[in-house]
Write a structure and sequence with these properties.
This protein is mainly beta and 51 residues long. It has strands at residues 17-19, 25-27, 35-36. It has one domain (1-51).
């Protein structure tokens, strides 16, 4: 889950996530429930934590 994120025009705000107590965000879109720190991408490589 450490593929780098690129800041460009294709980055858009998203839904189906929530912030965890430790500062990471958890994606709630698929059953993997990826927990991401700033700059990480989920296993799907579509979702990422940016900002």
């Amino acid at each position: 889950m450490d593929a780098p994120l690129v800041r460009d025009r294709h980055v858009v705000p998203t839904r189906f996530w929530h912030r965890l107590e430790d500062g990471r965000v958890q994606c709630d879109l698929c059953p993997r429930f990826c927990r991401l720190r700033e700059g990480q991408r989920g296993l799907c490589f579509v979702r990422g934590a940016l900002g």
